[in-house]
Amino acid sequence: MQIKNYTSSVSVINSINLIENRLVSAGATHIGKVYDKERVKGITFQIPVNGIPILFKLPTKSEAVFKVLWKEVRKPRPETKKNIELQSERTAWKILADWVDIQITMITLEQAEFIEVFLPYAFDGVTNKTFFEKMKESQYKLLEG
User: Which residue segment(s) compose the domain that 43 sits in?
Assistant: First the structure.
């Protein structure tokens, strides 16, 4: 299988802690968690960009990871589905932690600006949508020249 971290044993909470620490090191002033029932599904954070506090939302989408991992199962046993669900969460969070780490490293090395890499995740609390979700909903009309 060619999926990064698909066998990760790093717990969800450890990945979340890594993400939070990296965001704080990049200047985040507020960090929150997005829950669905009792599971953390994403992280929100606020960081000043050019002196303006901007809210961002990073989702994990572990359900999508589950779909891909489940397709690889040949002969499931009774406990297989639950194990794959747990693995999907660990994998999704570890991938997000790695991604955040890489993006902040690029920012630190002046290879990219913060807003350049995090812009799709800028979050509008009124509409409850990220910038990317708004773009997709408008069929990317903002990109037309």
Answer: 12-130
